[in-house]
Amino acid sequence: MITIKTKEDIAILREGGNRHAVILRELVSMVRPGISASELNDHAVQCIAECGDIAAFLDYHPYGAKRPYPASLCVSVNDEIVHGIPNENEKILKVGDIVSIDLGLVHKGLFTDMAITVPVGDISSELQTLLTATKEALMAGIKAAKGGKRIGDISAAIEHIGIAHRYGIVQELSGHGVGYDVHEDPYVPNYGPAGKGDILRPGMVLAIEPIFNLGNRKIYLDSDGHTYRTVDGSPSAHFEHTVLITTGGAEILTQ
């Protein structure tokens, strides 16, 4: 069921989204060759505790998963698409890697979701273009998210950029509603025709998150039960914002 947030909810989500963005910026500033994924997770835990908030992903049990997610932060490196576990097997970042940092935050009982993919030191021009294009797709999706339009308008805007760059557009993973829970209706695919799907109504809150692979779109679930990887081993990029649908353009809550 699609939910419409109240004015009181929106005020809390704005406040939580601001806190969320500050934490993620701090984590991004820590990314460098030699740092471990577990250090990033530990710092996220510390920041969230200092704010008096809750990590949305810790102990979250997705439908069909054999166990809850064991960390507060998702750290996905290179061919890891999403939900990379930072605190089980040692994962040290090195020059030339790209790393997706994905954080869910609960502030005063309401959820926001945000992700960014960043370079580790110097990266190839091919990888830099992948990051730039995926971020561009996020902003195009947000621009298309106007009250009175449809979910498919977001999907088509994202897909257009992926196709232009001949990237693999992941179909099994998508954006989604957010606010009262980690994942809510509606789902927001990163592909599909414009003018289709649910109508975007003011007060809806969405997590829009394009995911592009440098190679083909095929993915698989790692043996850890949470991490999705590219089948061909190609790098993948992931960007995400939580946005509020208004009568005009969407408001980015995790700006």
Account of the 3D structure:
By secondary structure, the protein is an alpha+beta fold. It has one domain (7-252): Alpha-Beta Complex (Creatine Amidinohydrolase). It is 29% helix and 24% strand. It has 4 helices and 15 strands. The chain has helices spanning 7-30, 37-51, 125-144, 151-164, and strands at 54-55, 73-77, 80-82, 98-107, 110-119, 168-169, 175-177, 184-188, 205-208, 211-213, 219-221, 228-230, 236-238, 241-244, 251-252. It has a 5-stranded antiparallel sheet with strand order 8-7-9-14-15. Strands 1, 2, 4 and 5 form a 4-stranded antiparallel sheet that branches. Strand 4 and strand 5 form a beta hairpin. Helix 1 (7-30) packs antiparallel against helix 2 (37-51) and helix 3 packs antiparallel against helix 4. It starts with 6 loop residues before the first helix and ends with a strand. The relative contact order is 0.19. The mean pLDDT is 97.
